[in-house]
Amino acid sequence: MNKSPQSMLVVIGASAGGMAALKELVAQFPEDFPAPIFIVNHMSAHTSGDALVRVLNESGSLTCVHAQDQQAFESGHIYLAPSDQHMLIGKDKILITKGARENRSRPAIDPLFRSAAVAYGNRVIGIILTGYLDDGTSGMMAIKRCGGVCIAQDPEDASYPDMPRSVIANVGADYCLPIAGMGELLSDLASRVLPESGPAPDDIVIEAEIAQRVLSDLPSVEALGDQVPYNCPDCGGVLWQMKEGKLLRYRCHTGHAFTSSALIAQQTVKIEETLWVALRMFEERQNLLVTMSKNESQTSTSSISQRAKDSKVHIDRIRAMLKSTEKDSHVEDAGPPAS
């Protein structure tokens, strides 16, 4: 690629409905598109992403590949984050890490956006497309604070409008438009020649470094926010709260990070898991008590039967709670929590 400090980068984040949206967008890029394109599309850890690579290669004239660690990138190429790994941007190279999940996702959008903002400042063009919740909002804030361009899909055009709506509400998009109108705009923006911007703010650099070195540490997170009386639902560690405008985010020293919406969603998952374990244990207890009542004397049977009835009351309550969590769980399944 052009190694000059003026080269632009395009970073794109998508989630639910992402394949169709990315297919439509990629079809608009000309063969001589003057910037590299980096894509994070939320996917399960058990999928390879090969289907999306194939679809994007068939949809347009640019070459799409799975990104590899330490890979040099070129203008006019598309780099897709691999399954179950974060994709970051360094100076003239790609970094692939197995860092902790952010917003319940790996790959996540925020680490890509932040790393690009730190490495390329005002020469980053960020695009947020369809998806649930708000991954990408904090990363887009980083791009905006470093002088880059913020583009959001028109929520009315998105299959799942949460992510673009969050960016528009919390960051303020420089451009908000349907995907059909993005190709010409991007070709124009990517052709600009800009002076190299100054260093990124310290907090953005710290978060980018956390993602790059895989593990966080106490001094890092203490520099970002204040400790709060909540625990990380993924590892059980203490959380620190950060406030970016109206957006509340949380980090643990292990490296897991959540917006408030993602934290509630993951807490709901953990509560449901705990309730299922409790239900199993109470059902086993009830079955054992019923079995015991058949083999005990009549005097003991009355007490055992009452204990079995009490267990049934708890079982019914837990089942009711599980039904309640089902109503609250209309959120994106971003995969299992990180270990």
Automatic annotation (TrEMBL):
Keyword annotations of the record: Chemotaxis, Hydrolase
A GO-annotated cellular component: cytoplasm
UniProt-listed InterPro entries: CheB_C, Chemotax_prot-Glu_Me-esterase, Sig_transdc_resp-reg_Me-estase
One GO BP: chemotaxis
Signal peptide stretch: none
Group of enzyme by EC: hydrolase
Reaction(s) this enzyme catalyzes, per UniProt: [protein]-L-glutamate 5-O-methyl ester + H2O = L-glutamyl-[protein] + methanol + H(+)
Gene3D superfamilies: Methylesterase CheB, C-terminal domain (3.40.50.180)
A Pfam family reported for this protein in Swiss-Prot or TrEMBL: CheB_methylest
Protein name, entry field: protein-glutamate methylesterase
Organism per entry: Marinobacter vulgaris
